[in-house]
Amino acid sequence: MAKSAGQKLKPLVLRQTLLERSDEDHPLTVAQLIAALEPWGIQAERKSIYGDMEALRTFGMDIQSRKGKSPGWFVGERSFQLPELKLLVDAVQSCKFITKRKSDELIRKLEGLTSVWQARQLQRQVYVDRRVKTMNESVYYSIDKLHNALAARRAVTFRYFEYNVRKEKVFRRDGRRYTVFPHGLIWDSENYYLVGWDGTKKEVRHYRVDKMAELAVTCLRLEPGEDQDLAAFDMAAYAAKHFGMFRGREGRVRLRCQNRMVGVVLDRFGQEVMLVPDGEDHFTVTVDAVVSPQFFGWLFGLGDAVELTAPAWAVEAFQDQLRQVAGQYRPPEDGAAG
């Protein structure tokens, strides 16, 4: 009976061995495959290994064989190739909303999708640089809860906080819970944001997921009429209007840009925006935007290549912002220590 049970496991053990220990640069010989079966108490002959390899091919595995200087068997095409895994590892490592501990766990799981030899290249990828990570360990599970709430079309409640200079959580609204009907999640500037209908403010707002505490999915649903308003809400347009997801006054702004800024404008606002020639060296573009300090920062970074020309209230606000910042950097008066 023991031999029969072992023989039933034989193809599974061979499959796992090939997935874990073989790749194009590290084929496994028949002798190595037979040796891998021994800890399981499985005896095998060379001829039977050839039959097993053919059975695994029939099952759908891309089993390749090589003759010559480095003969053996290896897995060719996998669900994820090494360059794809490198991209995924880099994305996980870059995400601020995933803590370092959770990043390490996910990366170890990604390493399990390739051979032990190629996994070493992924390990080297991890330590490319030091990146800022969130301090909120629960964010990984909060995202899952929010997706469940979205699927069930139910409200969530949570407490929302900021950090003070001592890195302590300070809760907004005196710690009272927020009630939000989720509409979607946005990944912007390496942070996840929940966008939804705020039951208290009676408007669509967004919140950083890593700043939520005690998140819970409720049985509450939107009132008749409100659900239709939310269904018609354009998530893509909402995200495009916000710079760094900062809140501010929304308006239709006009920018006059030097021609060399075409790529910058298209990267930020998309290929659909209309560029209107304005003389030989400039063009204008009109877009919906939330005018916030972050918007002014983006504008200032482009220097004299982009000019905000309308609406008037936005131009005045930008001028006020420039004056306030310039006031902090006035040169010392004559006779003052420099």
TrEMBL record:
Family matches, as InterPro entries: CBASS_pafABC_assoc_protein, WCX_dom, WH_DNA-bd_sf, WYL_dom
Pfam family, one: WYL
Segments forming domain WCX: 252-326
Top-level taxon of the source organism: Bacteria
Domain WYL: 144-216
Transmembrane segments: none
Name under which the protein is recorded: WYL domain-containing protein
Species assigned in the record: Candidatus Intestinimonas pullistercoris
